Amino acid sequence: MWQVAGDLFVKNMDWPGADDLAARLARTIDPKLLNAEEDEDPALQAAQMQIQAMGQEMEQMYQMLQSVQQSMEARDLQIKEQANQIKAYDAETKRIAAVQAGMTPEQIQDIVLGTIAAAMDTGDLVPQQPQNLA
Fold it and tell me: How far is it, in rounded angstroms, from Cα 99 to Cα 107?
């Protein structure tokens, strides 16, 4: 017991120099034993746990923000791709309108059939099955 708490025994004695001797004895005791009381402070432990919880919440918020940013970037890419497709269809429509004046009906029919076939190949147009009315 003297090796663990000898400094406390001497410190509480009522004779001259007790505090000095207690300080010397405290230097000989294992530092882990001296700091054990400080480590067990419930307020300190509660604060450390709260700090850890806040750190985890911040990490979750960061992950959520990353996810939202990636979703927004993906959505922007989709919008740009759709805008490019619209421009391509518009250009094709203008081209057909420009050359239509000098075309025969058979040539126009070939272009329309080619456009429909291309739309079916890309999945933009799906043929419907004839319905039985019987």
Answer: 10
